[in-house]
Structure formats: C-alpha cells, structure tokens
Design brief:
This protein has 15 helices and 28 strands. By secondary structure, the chain is α/β, with parallel strands linked by helices. The protein folds into two domains: 312 residues, 4-Layer Sandwich (Purple Acid Phosphatase, chain A, domain 2); 176 residues, 5'-nucleotidase,  domain 2. Strands 1-17-16-2-5-6-7 form a seven-stranded mixed sheet, covered by helices on one side. α10 packs across α15. It is globular and about 80 Å long.
Length: 549
C-alpha cells in the first residue's frame, strides 16, 4: 500500500519546527459537570466492544477491604504515534533522532512504569524501513511488547498487508488495537478482530481508551486491503461511544485518534460527549493545545522521534478530571556528542537480531552514491520513474505518487535494503492505456489537490508538465506535445490504479496489465545494471531537474 502522506523520517525538520511552536497545554477543567459514581462494568456490558484490564492485576483497594483510596489521583499517560517501523535511529548530519531503544531510555528518565502509567499509540505502528516492512510488522509488534504498550489506535498503515495479516499481528501483540468507527458494511458491526475500546484501572481509576481511525483510510490504502469495511465519521462516533464507555465504568476517557491534529481539535470543540484527553496522529506533527471545550489535544510526532507526556488530575469526590498538563519530548541528540540517556539494552538486542536477519536477505550491494539522494526531491522521483521506463521500454510515460517514496538515500553503498527502505510497500507495477486527455486529467487532479512532493503529487518520467488547472500543459520527452486523442502506455502502481490519492486510471482503463513485479523491483534492477561506484556514482545517472516546469 502507498499512503498519500509523508514518511516519519522525511519530515524531521517539520517535526522540529512544529514542536517549536507548540502551545503549552495546562489548566483546569471546571466545565465538565460532576457525574454519578461510576459502576463497575459487568462482562455482559463490555461484551465484544470493550475489555477491562488491570495494569498490575490487583483488585481495587476498596474491593480488597484496604484503606480508602486517595481522593485526588494523578494519572500519567505516555503517548507516541506513527512509529512507522523506525526501530533504528535516524541520523542526519547534525542529529541522531529516535530509535526504539533511545525512546525507552528517554521515557525511563521521565519515570515511565507501565505497571502504574499508561503507554499508548495513535496508530501507524509499522510500514517504513525494510526492518519493519520486509517482515510485515512482526519486529515492531515485538518492540511494542517489550516496551509494554497498553493499546494502539488502528491507523491506515495497519492495513498495509490486508486484514488477514493485521489480524495475525494483533494476535502476536500483548496490547490491544482499538477503533470504534470501523464496521463491516455487511453486518454494521466491527469485525471480530477489532476492539472498539478498552477499560484499564490505573492507580485505582478506571480509564477508558477509545480508538478511532481516519475515514480517509479508504483512499489512503490499497482498496482491497479495506474491502467490506466502512469508516464512520469520528465526531459522530465519539458522540455515541464516549457515553457508552463511561456507562461501562470508565471514570476517565482518553481517545487514541489516528487522525490529524487540527481536525481532532475541531472534534474536541464540537462533540457533545467530551473526552478528558485526545491523542492525535496521522499528520506527523508534534504539537499540543487545550481545545475551547477544555480538552487537551496532543499530536506526538512520528518515528519514535518524540512522545507526549500527559498528566491528568482526577478528583474522586467530584468524579471528574480537574486539571491537566501536557509536555512533549524530542528524542534527539547531537551526533557529535554522547547520548544523554542510556538506550535500553534489551531493545538494542532485539533490533540487532532483526537487522542481522535482514542483512542476510537484502544486504547485497547494488550501487554507490557519493552525495546521497534527498527526500523529498525531484531526483528521488526521477530515479524511480526513469528506472521503470528503462526496465519496461515499451511504455511511454511513468507516474508515481510521491507518497510511495518514503525516505532519503544516504551517501555510500546502495543495497537492496536501501531501495526497499525508499519504496517499502507491496505495490504492484501496472501498465494502463489511456488517451492523452485522460493522462492530462490525472495530472491536473494531482497538481491541483496536492502540494509539491505531497502524498499524491506526481513524480513523472518520459514527460514534464507546467501550469495548473486548465492551463496545465504536458510535454513528452524530446519536446513532443501531448496528443489528446492518442493512446499512451502509462506505468503506475496498483495503489494509484485502485483510486489511491484520487487517481482515475482504474476507471479509465479497467483492463490494465499487471506487470508481475513490485514497484521497487525495476529500481533495484536498473540501479544494479548501472554499476555505479565511487568513481561513477549513481547521481551521475539520475536526473535532479524538476519536471513540473
């Protein structure tokens, strides 16, 4: 699947910038009316929709006949999002960012104890580098298990390998995957493998965790991966489910939302059923605020490069959250200096084990780059599209959505894993036959709908384009004008063919040819064929020029 968004690592600068302008989220909430004392949820009440689980397995102190609980309780929530399989740190010229072992060190420094605190994710746990994607997310699930996550929302990338694989990964996970707005079209209820919410006693307080998933998932993954599923409106879902969860015994409600930060602020301000904390994701920004409703809303960045530390003060007598604070941490340090925290050694061993397996499968060197290839950049898009055309010479042009290219290429040797990291999805290479007018219609749509290098923005080969809207003009290789009436052979990936990023090729040519290869295979083959080296690096063969002017 190729999501139309940006990779966790490709937006390092954006994350840092977002954190610099993040709003301080602290204050009190006196607007929520006191509710009746919560009743314990019965097994029948929870049913298949939710589940009650204790962090420490012990009964509430009142039920055990011990001293009465403290009237004021501080609940601590650690949150990440859009990890995208970045088990290893990302290194640029100045900083080392993220990495599962490093984030565990940072969280330990902040006092994380998963027997007393919540550790949650807003979804998109996998996809990304080969260490995650080649093994279909299994190493990431093992990392989550080691870290002790309690729950994750279901993101669009959780469907990267279809519902069957998602169910398999869920079965391996010690935590729960949650989404209250996904249902089967045929039955109107959630599939058996999806849990809507979870109730977890934390410090003697029953915390309800509700997951929701972006409705845009239907176009942010290959359609077959979500066949038969409906993604309901998030606000309408929470209007119904928040009261349900409180009625099932939850005293505090936290929403794990795989949806962008700004839309979730709007949800917080317009919902009729107020949550106590909303943790957003999907957009890869690091930011937080207090919505006008008084609900804290936070987005936790991506790639384990940052996390959110939220504290909620719960007053048992009033039956409500009376104060909240949100802090956010960037997991980074100067590449020339020492690591300020101790990386978790067990996680380091786990990651090393999976990398060793990957090296044996994909460690073969196929080329060399003296400078690397930046992401996002025209050079990266041109590399992919030109490779397609080189290996499928009867095609006329190539169009690849930039969302299918996920990270830069570092200078030095290029391995098969390098290309897999850049193009990590199980997308097939397709050849469609469309008229010049139909090709023009697709490029107009993409240029009009997406910012340059955005998820659906087109990288192209065998052509250039200028202008926007009705003024957009396509010129073929060699300066040949596009013939609107002529039929052209166009290379695309099957995500685009299925309507991903709103491309129209699938309806224009219902009889397209599946070329029997992954979209990265021609890039590996062409790169190897070029035989680049330190004296003849890859960049001497890759066109860096923009193709939108």
């Amino acid at each position: 699947m190729t999501r139309g968004g940006s990779s966790g690592r490709g937006l390092v600068v954006g994350i840092v910038a977002a954190s610099a302008i993040a709003l301080v989220a602290c204050g009190s909430d006196d607007s929520q009316p006191a509710k009746e004392p919560a009743q314990d949820a019965s097994a029948d009440a929870l049913g298949d929709a939710g589940e009650e689980a204790s962090l420490d397995g012990s009964p509430d102190s009142e039920e055990a006949g011990l001293d009465a609980p403290e009237p004021i309780v501080e609940l601590t929530v650690f949150a990440t999002s859009d990890e995208h399989g970045w088990l290893q740190p990302y290194t640029d010229s100045a900083q080392i960012l993220g990495g599962a072992a490093n984030v565990m060190g940072w969280m330990a420094k902040d006092g994380l104890d998963v027997s007393k605190h919540l550790l949650v994710s807003s979804g998109d746990n996998w996809a990304g580098p080969a260490i995650s994607s080649y093994f279909r997310g299994e190493p990431v699930v093992q990392a989550f298990n080691l870290m002790g996550y309690h729950a994750s929302a279901i993101g669009n990338h959780e469907f990267d390998w279809g519902q069957e694989v998602l169910g398999l990964r869920m079965g391996e996970a010690h935590h729960k995957y949650l989404s209250a707005n996904i249902r089967q079209e045929s039955t109107g209820v959630a599939p058996d493998f999806i849990q809507r919410y979870l109730i977890v006693p934390v410090q003697g307080v029953k915390v309800g965790l509700i997951g929701v998933t972006a409705p845009s998932t239907v176009t942010a993954t290959t359609p077959k991966n979500v066949a038969g599923l409906v993604f309901d409106n998030i606000r309408e879902t929470l209007d119904a489910v928040v009261p349900e969860v409180r009625g099932a015994g939850a005293e505090v409600v936290v929403v794990l939302a795989h949806e962008d930060y700004l839309p979730m602020i709007l949800v917080a301000e317009t919902t009729t059923s107020k949550a106590d904390l909303i943790l957003a994701g999907h957009g890869h920004v690091l930011a937080h605020t207090i919505a006008k409703s008084g609900t804290p809303v936070a987005s936790s960045g991506s790639g384990w490069m940052a996390y959110t530390l939220a504290k909620l003060t719960y007053d048992r007598m009033q039956g409500k959250v009376t104060a909240s604070t949100v802090e956010q941490r960037e997991v980074s340090y100067d590449s020339a200096g020492p690591n300020p925290v101790e990386p978790n050694p067990e996680m380091e061993s786990l990651v090393e084990e999976w990398q060793t397996k990957l090296d044996a499968l994909m460690g073969e060197t196929i080329g060399y780059t003296e400078t690397g290839i930046a992401y996002p950049s025209w050079a990266m898009g041109n590399w992919a599209c030109d490779a397609w055309l080189a290996m499928v010479p009867d095609a006329d042009v190539a169009v690849q959505n930039f969302g299918g290219l996920r990270q830069p290429v570092a200078k030095g040797p290029i391995t098969k894993q390098t290309v897999f990291d850049v193009m990590p999805f199980e997308n097939r290479l397709m050849q469609v036959q469309v008229t010049g007018a139909q090709l023009l219609e697709n490029i107009k749509m993409a240029v009009g709908k997406y910012v340059i290098f955005g998820g659906g923005y087109p990288a192209v080969g065998g052509m250039t384009f200028t202008g926007t809207g009705d003024a957009l003009v396509i010129t073929l290789e060699g300066g040949v004008p596009l013939d609107l009436a002529k039929t052209y052979k166009v290379l695309i990936n099957d995500y685009m063919y299925g309507g991903g990023n709103n491309y129209l090729f699938g309806t224009q040519d219902p009889n397209a040819t599946d070329l029997g290869m992954n979209y990265r295979d021609p890039v590996i083959a062409w790169t190897e064929q070029l035989g680049s080296s330190s004296t003849d690096p890859l960049e001497s063969h890759v066109d860096p020029a923009p193709r939108n002017q």
